[in-house]
Write a structure and sequence with these properties.
The complex is a heterodimer of chains A (104) and B (642). Chain A has 104 residues and is mostly helical. Helix content of chain A is 75%, strand content 0%. In chain B, strands 1-2 form a two-stranded antiparallel sheet. Chain B has a two-stranded antiparallel sheet with strand order 3-4. The chains are: A mainly alpha (104), B mainly alpha (642). The interface between A and B is small, with 12 and 11 residues.
């Protein structure tokens, strides 16, 4: 089995990271922003797994790290959605531009 | 040696009464405040008399003199091995005498106030202030070290401030209280510096040690303090002059007397207590307390005697022209304290046990009785007439026979007519002056004549002159106002007959005094002349006083305006100090000091105005800034941090 070079995988994860970043900065819908954050987290997961596989094949640290990140991402999604629901109740909108009271 | 521990009760009882009345007076002691304060003080007075009896008659003399005793002394603020501030009690003839005088006069005033202040809204507050004052004054008298006396000195000043400003809804009373406080505070500044110089050289604050170290011209401390100098005057003279400045402020000596006449805005019994018999003689007491030290320095003594005699003369002249009866009495107090002061400054070659000291203390003793009698009499008159102005009075002898009799006794006493108390003490002062300084003797003689004149001017204007026009809506006053007058009148009659020189002298050993008939002729004749002149001018209504005033012209006007001393003060403070010091300082403060601070604030405000846009409330822009920061740091660490 001819292996895929590491750079390819890193390219994918970088693309995923910047797509997430772009979504986080441009989308006004908070659900979409949350999804963008998930993309960023997954790009990091890919990095962990790839480095583990290519640099230290006899160890499992990277894989465990990604497992933890997945768990935390699930918890974070629950918290974020709870915040979004509360925001919707008070503002009747989940547009992030509508919640800008906390300023100077 | 028997114990004197119970002495501590004398000042503590009024303190307890002050605390009770001050904290709970308006709630629980609204009507019984007077009784409570008076009872506490009556107990103090009895203890004072007991202490005096024990000191003079049971313990008596040791080695032929009355000893200085320090029954107890508690270390209060130990600063170093050699310097600690103690709280103690010092007993010697003058502190015992002052104990008796202060507690007794204070008791009379407490009793008198029961009637005088009846119905006053802040009755219990009044009594708590009186108790505070009495506590401070008794503490001052008993102080065993110079710092302790300074603290009580300030306490006395504060309580005097409170009492003068008792009618705080009256603007003149507030102004008078402020003036009294500021003027005496200014003088106390000198006192404090004097204390520091004295204690720096003698390395102690304790009175007996301090006196022992500094009164011997050959001792180490004396040599050090005399050899150090400033502006060509030795540090010793400076220290004594500064201490005297504190005393002059409290005792209303020229030119620091300006607060005393205004202080008459307080309730009249307060004037009797503070501004006649107790607080104003604190300055005399202070000089007497340090007398062995003062007596080694001729410059300081000269300063004291001339300040005293000038004050006595000026005050007597001004008193002749005033029409407010309390102001006349205030100036007369100043004049009499002038007598005590200059008597202390006289130092004939009679060694350390001189006549001047004894005479001064004797006059202090007798003056306390007849002057508080005069003030309380004035209180009774004001209570009756509802006016302070002697032109509103006249013919009162028919309405107030008892006040008339006691007032007359006090007037005769202060004028120096034998055999009333004032005659004896004044005679000793004149004798001491005659022995040492003829200029002072003649000024004192003239002042004596003026004293008789202005006192009888007051007496005839109040009790004779025109017939009273007012209707008697109430009597002479309640019993509580009559009893103190009678008691004080009895004391005024007998106080002069006490063998004072047996007990109270500079070094505790008795000195021989006798009435010299030939010597007495001049002062008594002058006093009688003054009395007759006053009677001729004021006994019947007429235009004689006005004609005399017109004949005197400028002198009368100057005296009527108190020699423009208040105006001079105002000129110096308002015109000179405000313009030359105050205004530039205010300009500097407003423009430079405030300017710096305002500038810093303005710059901060500008920067924050420029940068506040970053905090716009948009989560995404925060995230962008955050990401930008992380990216910049990454670049920094990866490529530039090599």
């Amino acid at each position: 089995m001819s292996s895929i070079p590491l750079t390819h995988i890193l390219f994918v994860s970088t693309a995923l990271f910047f797509i997430g970043m772009y979504g986080l900065f441009t989308r006004r819908n908070m659900i979409t922003m949350l999804m963008s954050v998930e993309l960023i987290l997954n790009s990091v997961n890919i990095n962990f797994v790839a480095f583990n596989k290519y640099l230290y094949p006899d160890k499992l640290d990277g894989i465990f790290f990604s497992l933890f990140i997945i768990t935390i991402a699930a918890a974070e999604a629950a918290v974020a959605i709870a915040i979004i629901i509360n925001l919707y109740r008070s503002h009747h909108s989940i547009d992030v531009e509508d919640a800008t009271e906390m300023k100077y | 040696m028997s114990t004197y521990l119970y002495i501590a009760l004398i000042p503590l009882l009024p303190l307890v009464s002050f605390l009770l009345l001050g904290l709970f007076g308006r709630k629980y002691f609204r009507s019984s405040a007077g009784a409570l304060g008076t009872m506490a003080l009556a107990a103090s007075t009895i203890i004072s008399f007991a202490a005096a009896y024990q000191y003079f008659f049971i313990d008596g003399k040791a080695d032929g003199i009355y000893q200085k005793i320090v029954p107890f002394s508690v270390s209060w603020l130990p600063f170093s091995e050699s310097l600690s501030i103690d709280m103690g009690v010092l007993l010697d003839p003058i502190s015992i005498m002052m104990l008796v005088v202060v507690s007794f006069v204070s008791l009379m005033v407490h009793i008198f106030s029961l009637g005088y202040m009846k119905g006053e809204e802040r009755f219990s507050t009044y009594y708590s202030f009186l108790s505070l004052f009495t506590f401070s004054m008794l503490g001052l008298v008993l102080s065993s070290n110079i710092f302790q006396i300074y603290m009580f000195w300030e306490l006395v000043g504060v309580s005097s401030f409170l009492l003068i400003g008792f009618y705080f809804d009256k603007p003149t009373a507030v102004a008078a209280a402020k003036k009294a406080f500021i003027v005496t505070r200014f003088a106390d500044f000198g006192f404090l510096v004097g204390i520091l110089i004295l204690s720096y050289y003698s390395n102690t604050l304790d009175f007996p040690t301090l006196i022992e170290k500094l009164s011997d011209p050959g001792s180490e401390a004396s040599l050090a303090i005399s050899s150090a100098g400033f502006l060509g005057i030795s540090a010793f003279t400076w220290a004594l002059a500064l201490v005297f400045m504190g005393g002059a402020g409290k005792s209303a000596m020229f030119p620091l007397h300006i607060w005393l006449p205004d202080a008459m805005e307080g309730p009249t019994p307060v004037s009797a207590l503070i501004h006649a018999a107790t607080m104003v003689v604190a300055g005399v007491y202070l000089v007497a307390r340090l007398f062995p030290v003062f007596s080694t320095n001729d410059t300081a003594l000269t300063l004291i005697s001339y300040t005293g005699v000038i004050s006595a003369l000026i005050a007597a002249i001004i008193a002749c022209t005033q029409t407010d009866i309390k102001r006349v009495l205030a100036y007369s107090t100043m004049s009499q304290i002038g007598y005590m002061m200059f008597a202390l400054g006289l130092n004939p070659e009679s060694g350390d046990n001189n006549l001047g000291y004894m005479a001064s203390m004797f006059h202090l003793f007798t003056h306390a009785f007849f002057k508080s009698l005069l003030f309380l009499g004035a209180g009774a008159i004001i209570h009756f007439v509802h006016s302070n102005d002697m032109r509103d009075m006249g013919g009162l002898r028919k309405w107030m026979p008892l006040t008339h009799a006691t007032f007359l006794i006090a007037c005769l006493a202060i004028a120096g007519i034998p055999p009333f108390a004032g005659f004896f003490s004044k005679e000793e002062i004149l004798l001491a002056a005659y022995d040492s300084n003829m200029i002072i003797y003649f000024i004192a003689l003239i002042t004596g004549a003026l004293t008789a004149f202005y006192m009888f001017r007051l007496y005839f204007s109040i009790f004779w002159n025109k017939d009273s026009t007012h209707t008697a809506d109430h009597g002479e006053g309640p019993l509580s106002m009559k009893v103190p007058l009678v008691i004080l009148a009895i004391f005024t009659l007998v106080a002069g007959l006490l063998p004072f020189s047996e007990y109270i002298t500079a070094n505790g050993a008795p000195i021989e005094t006798h009435i010299n008939l030939g010597f007495s002729i001049a002062p008594v004749l002058l006093a009688i002349t003054g009395t007759i002149l006053a009677g001729w001018l004021y006994k019947t209504p007429g235009d004689k006083p006005a004609k005399l005033a017109a004949a005197l012209g400028g002198l009368y006007r100057a005296a009527y305006h108190k020699f423009y001393i208040d105006e001079i003060y105002l000129f110096i403070t308002k015109k000179v100090l405000f313009n030359l010091v105050g205004k530039p300082a205010a300009w500097f403060d407003r423009n430079i000091v405030d300017g710096t601070m305002n500038g810093m604030a303005a710059v901060t405000a500008k920067i924050s105005w420029l940068t506040k846009g970053i905090q716009n409330g948009r989560v995404q822009s925060y995230a962008l800034w955050f990401f930008g920061g992380v990216a910049a740091l990454s670049v920094l660490f990866i490529y530039l941090w090599k």
